[in-house]
Amino acid sequence: MSRHVVPRRWKSGMIEVGAKVFAYVQASGIDPTGDTGVANSGLIVGPSAAVAVDALMVPSMTRRLVAAIKRTTRKPIAQLINTHHHLDHTGGNRFFRGAAIVSTEKCREALAPGFPPLSLLQRFMPKFAAEFAKLQVILPTVTFADRMVLHDGEREIQLWHPGFAAHTVGDAVAYLPKERILFAGDIAFLYVTPLAFQGHVGNWIKAADRLLRFDADVIVPGHGPVGTRKDLKNMRDYLALVRREARQRFDAGMPAEAAAADIKLGVYASWSDAERILPNVMRCYQEFRDELDQPMDLPRMLAGMERLRGAASTHACV
Ligand SMILES: [Zn+2]
Residue 318: is its pLDDT beyond 50? Predict the structure, then answer.
C-alpha cells in the first residue's frame, strides 16, 4: 500500500495550471456528509476561443463556474468536453448553449436515457436535493470512438478513450501534450475515494496505468485537488488493494457487504467518502461473477453505504 499524507482541504476556484490553462476546483475536502456530486471542471483558452472541460451538476454550481470563466476570459466557449455521462459532469450542459458538446459515442449513449430518478438522486446527494428538479439533459453534439484532436492555433487537445469501460462505459480524458497537462475526468479521483458503481475495477486499474504513462506533469482529476502522477498512482493502488482484498473474500464465500466492512483500508480510510468501499467491492464481485452488464442495485448500495458511514462516525466518536 502506498504511504502518503492525505490533504484535508485543498485549493479551489479557477487555478492556472499552465499558460492560459485552468483547473476549476469546487470547494471541497474532507466532509462527514460526503462530497458526492462535487466535481471539477477545466478551461483551456486559445487564440480565438476557449474549450471547457465538464459542466458540473446543479445550476448553482454551473452558474458559479460560468461566472469564473467570464472573469478569466472574454473568449467564447467553442467546445465543451464531457469526460463521461455522469450527472455531476453533464448536468450543467445547458449553460453552454453556443458550444459544440464533445464526448465519446458511448458517453452520449449512456446519457441519452436521461438522469437517474429524482428520488434516488435526492437520497444519494441530499445536499443538492432542491435543485435536481431543474435538471435537463442536453446531449453531446459531436462524438468520437477512441481518439479525437482539437486544434486551436498552436494548441493541441488530444481526447482519448481507453477502449473499454473503466469508471464508466464512455470515459474520455483531454491531454495537452505540449503543456503536459492531463484533464483525466473521473478516471482520476485524488484523495476522494473513487466510486465504481457503474465501473469495471479491473479495467479502471489498467486505464490508470495507461494514464500514468502519459507524460503529464499536472493532472486535473474529476474529483479532488490538482495533482501529479504520484497522486494518481495512490488512487490506482487503492483500486488494486480493494480488488485484491475483495477477491480473497469472494473466494472464501464472504458476502459483499461483509467484505466491504472487513477490508482494512489503512491510509485510504482517511480519503473522503471511504464508505464507497461498498459499491467498489460490489462491482468487483460482479466482475468476478462476469455479471458486470447487470446494473447495480442502487437502493441496496445506498442503504449499505449509509450503514458503513454510520459505523465509521460512531467509531470516530469513541
Ligand atoms: Zn463520474
Answer: no
The answer to whether the predicted template modeling score (pTM) of the entire model surpasses 0.85 is yes
Query: Can you give the CATH number for the domain in which 49 is found?
Result: 3.60.15.10
- What separation in Å is there between the alpha carbon of 117 and the centre of ligand 1? 17
Say how many Å lie between the CA of residue 318 and the centre of ligand 1.
Answer: 34
Q: How far is the CA of 317 from the centre of ligand 1 (A)?
A: 31
In a domain, 182, yes or no: yes
59 Cβ partners below 8 Å, 6+ apart? Answer: 92, 95, 131, 134
| Ligand 1 center–CA 54 separation, angstroms | 11
User: How many domains does one find in the chain?
Assistant: 1
Which of the four pLDDT bands, split at 50, 70 and 90, describes residue 183?
very high
- Dist. CA 214 → ligand 1 center (Å): 21
- In this structure, the number of other CB atoms found within 10 A of the CB of residue 266 comes to 12
pLDDT score of 1 more than 60: no
Integer Cα distance of 67 and 62 in angstroms? 8
- Residues that place a CB less than 5 A from ion ligand 1: 86, 186
Give the domain range for residue 200.
Answer: 13-229
Give the count of beta carbons closer than 10 Å to the beta carbon of residue 17: 18
Residue 313 pLDDT more than 70? no
Query: For cell 480488488, what's the residue?
Result: 243
Q: What is the model's pLDDT at position 312?
A: 67
**Helices 201-212 + 229-251 axis angle, to 10:** 160
Q: Do you know the residue count of the chain?
A: 318
Q: How far apart are CA 37 and CA 62, in angstroms?
A: 12
84 CA to centre of ligand 1 in angstroms: 7
Which residues lie across from 101 on neighbouring strands?
80
Q: Is residue 115 part of a domain?
A: yes
